[in-house]
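Full entry
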Amino acid sequence: MLAFIIFIVTLVLVIWQPKGLGIGWSALGGALVALAFGVVQLSDVGIVWDIVWDATFTFVALIIISLILDRAGFFSWAALHVARLGNGQGRLLFPMIVILGAFISAFFANDGAALLLTPIVIAILLRLKFSPPSALAFIIATGFIADTASLPLVTSNLVNIVSANYFDIGFGRYAAVMVPVNIVSVIATLVVLWMVYACQIPKHYSIANLSAPKSAIEDPLVFKAAFPLLALLLVAYSATESLGVPISLVTGAAALVLMAIAGRWWQGGREAVVSVPDVVRNAPWQIVLFSVGMYLVVYGLGNAGLTAYGAQILNWLGQQGNIIATVGTGFLSAIVASIMNNMPSTLVGALAIDSAQVPAATRELMIYANVIGNDLGPKFTPIGSLATLLWLHVLAEKDYKISWGQYMKIGLLITPPVLLATLLALVFWLPHVSGG
């Protein structure tokens, strides 16, 4: 009961953020209380740090890369291109915006997509003079695709990195399983969004008020470096996998290269367009404290019996056949993530799967189903993921207010069919990858 109370109070503070209290300080405070009352031990700190450090610093490096590219005009350039390629056809623009969001989420993580693409899409919608209902359809699509398209790469979501590291899944193996599954997730998201919002999408729009994509480029040197750097980064992930090089080291090296280019370090900072110190200051350093603190609090819940209870449920699911085991694990993870946020939910699921006594093939399905549930399932509620909280914050700053009740109506309508389709795709695809 004590572990549960500490978790609930910590989660409330993380969501509420009274007087601007950072999520990291709230989580760290909860961890210190858990340590003081013996819910977790000092030895648990090392265990949790070993689980989260690589994922956390990878995430920070990706956000630094994203922020630099954003200030260089990369994402505005891409969005303007998409708006022009829509050729004035609203029903062509809608899927193109969804696909753009899917690519950004895949390569720059779901939080990057929510944080960077949303204000750009809103600015373009204002230029196109879309009505409020039409604009809402595109805004909802942008917010949802950020999470539902965050499956394909280990680096596409903090959840993916934590899970891959915990179960020792390599970058190539993970991509081989999840890239095709992610395609199904994106298609399912687009189909469901279209069914819900098709009547609100304008048939035509004028591109007369749109700027030329080239005009959005603020730093041509950073812009030119973006594509080869991203390609090299993907190659480096695969090339260093067998050497056991941490993903955070590879991503951090790419971030340093881009920082050097943006800051013109070889010129002593002269002619720099993007302020690298400002980007570093605005990086999500609070996520480092949040990861350690919140995971310690959740580890305390596991010590108090949550892991054993979860393992019992998974053991039962494992006896019902692979389809039930996969769908059940995915929806169970989604529900837990929607209640307690997907970051702690990921660890709860991983610990439970690790303790469950199920066949190896079923266990592997459960591992990936836990990822899918924690990537897609948080869309049930606004507190389910940091990306959603970021997205709602960005919308509030742009005077687009979406209440929790309104959000949950949308989430409960869109998420279940997408989650189900994606989990079934996993059941079908994984045996082909495993040769079974």
About this structure: The chain has a mean pLDDT of 86. The radius of gyration is 21 Å.
